[in-house]
Amino acid sequence: MGNSALKAHLETAQKTGVFQLTGKGLAEFPEDLQKLTSNLRTIDLSNNKIELLPPLIGKFSFLKSLALNNNKLTALPEELCKLKKLETLHLNGNHLRQLPAAFGQLSALKTLSLSGNQLRTVPTQLCGLRHLDVVDLSKNQIQNVPDTVGELQAIELNLNQNQISQISVHISHCPRLKVLRLEENCLELSMLPQSILSDSQISLLAVEGNLFEIKKLRELEGYDKYMERFTATKKKFA
């Protein structure tokens, strides 16, 4: 990609607040973007070969949306956590094993996608995020869901296609959790906390493809309570 092409992209971005450069084989975050730290609201650098996100990412203080799907990121810089206006963060298909310690400072974050990374647990940093609506942690290497999950504020949590065999009963305490996706994991029926059915806000529980037959779920105590919530929600969206 030539300099003139990049220059044209930068000029457009200056006017629109959107910088999108996807599938161009970029090996690094374009340094020239720092000229636009006060302009940019959206950056999309998906489908490139970026291995490192530079500390200067922390300077984009008006950024609302950042997409770096399908790159080669193995870690994220702490500076990313300075983006106080960031609402949407898409990092699917990278090689991330953990999130920065200060990740909980991304106080405006609503949507977080980390599908297809190498996370081994549900990051505790997510529990400090008060406006989080949707968290996608599908296709990682998560084996258990810890007690801290009870503080998660998300409305939807996607844990499909992990290796989960244990879930903390605290998941039923999530104040806003309506949709819980646990398809294609390693759950025995006895490891699914009954309180999810009898005593939670969850109105859609997806558990196909685990180590039990779905019809066995219907025999559990609390299933009728869950079905009441499920039906009420369905009516609302019908």
TrEMBL record:
Sorted alphabetically, the keyword list is: Leucine-rich repeat, Repeat
The record's InterPro entries line, in alphabetical order, gives: Leu-rich_rpt, Leu-rich_rpt_typical-subtyp, LRR_dom_sf, LRR_domain-containing
Repeat recorded as keyword:
yes
Specify the superkingdom: Eukaryota
Q: Which Pfam families match?
A: LRR_8
GO CC entries: cytoplasm
Recorded hits in Gene3D superfamilies, A to Z, give: Ribonuclease Inhibitor
- NAD as a keyword of this entry, yes or no, is no
Q: In its UniProt entry, what is this protein called?
A: Leucine-rich repeat-containing protein 57
Q: Which organism is it from?
A: Rostratula benghalensis (greater painted-snipe)
